[in-house]
Specification:
Elements lengths: L1 E9 L8 E8 L5 H11 L4 E8 L2 E7 L4 E2 L4 H12 L7 E6 L4 E8 L2 E7 L4 E2 L5 H8 L5 E4 L4 E4 L3 H6 L4 H6 L6 E6 L5 E7 L4 E4 L6 H12 L3 E6 L5 E7 L3 E6 L1 E10 L5
Parallel strand pairs: 2-3, 4-6, 11-12, 13-15
Antiparallel strand pairs: 1-2, 1-18, 3-4, 4-5, 6-7, 7-8, 8-17, 9-10, 10-11, 12-13, 13-14, 15-16, 16-17
Length: about 270
């Protein structure tokens, strides 16, 4: 069985920047084990699979190299990029339903940018038993440690600290809370910088993480007193994300670049 496979560099001005996302547009769902095997074979942070429900409406799922995940920004961007250039060339808006948590996501074509409407995540002060272990795992002491239902958010006062972190990923993986750990700080050149570590899902560092903006945008909007902001993710690849606190949700936008379109061969699904 042959499938068309795309790799889109999300939040990138040109190939080899941003975050590469694998994308497969399917006629019907493959077995979960097959989709997981494809994601593991590709070894990208996430591989997205979508199935069309109707005109410009799709179900969308994401797999890391080790597990399915409930929400992913850059692979949603990559999927929208593929569809806007292909099956939905005449559409300006694409709607996605993510069945794991029931999220409804909207992607809009805005010139060269694709804007995504994502849920707004509530941040709370983290009160776990392993507070002292977080600074050890990251290699620096945050000024604030916050959390969502799923993730940890560690705030630093200086962007140089965030940029130079070399966390012990074994210790990060062992933290009791946080499917991912986000680190962030104010920036002189942008509104804020950020990085994202996902060792629990086989991703040491996500080059540019879109879904973390569901938590970071409300935080920085309140702290900076502005609704529109620019975030620079300072991983080794790097990427720029334009963000807006839209009240009930957050808007995340950027540019992308196609790196690859090819064919993958898998066993017949019978």
């Amino acid at each position: 069985m042959e499938l068309t496979y795309h790799v889109i560099d999300a939040f990138a001005a040109k190939p080899f920047e941003g975050n590469p996302a694998g994308v497969c547009v399917l006629d019907a769902w493959l077995p979960n084990a097959t989709m997981q095997a494809i994601a593991a074979e590709n070894r990208l942070s996430e591989t997205a699979f979508c199935v069309r429900r109707g005109p410009a409406v799709y179900d969308l799922r994401w797999f890391t190299p080790t597990a399915e995940i409930d929400l992913c920004g850059h692979a949603t961007f990559g999927t929208a990029y593929v569809l806007f250039e292909g099956q939905e060339r005449g559409s300006s808006t694409i709607r996605f339903h993510a069945p794991m948590k029931g999220y409804n996501l909207v992607c809009t074509k805005c010139g060269e940018h694709i804007q995504m409407e994502f849920p707004r995540m509530q941040l709370l002060s983290y009160q776990g038993n392993d507070l002292a272990n977080i600074a050890t795992a990251l290699g620096a002491q945050p000024t604030e440690i916050l959390c969502t239902e799923r993730d940890l958010v560690c705030v630093f006062e200086h962007e140089e600290t965030v940029n130079s972190l070399t966390p012990n990923l074994d210790l990060v993986e062992g933290l009791e809370h946080g499917l991912s750990v986000y680190v962030t700080a104010p920036s002189a050149s942008y509104d804020y910088v950020a990085r994202a570590f996902w060792p629990k899902l086989g991703i040491p560092e996500d080059p540019v993480c879109g879904s973390m903006q569901s938590a970071l945008v409300p935080y920085w909007s309140a702290r900076l007193g502005k609704s529109q902001m620019v975030c620079r993710q300072t991983s080794s690849r790097g990427g720029t994300v334009w963000c807006e606190d839209a009240g009930n949700g957050v808007h995340i936008s950027g540019t992308g670049a196609r790196y690859l379109t090819g064919t993958i061969c898998i066993p017949d699904q019978s």
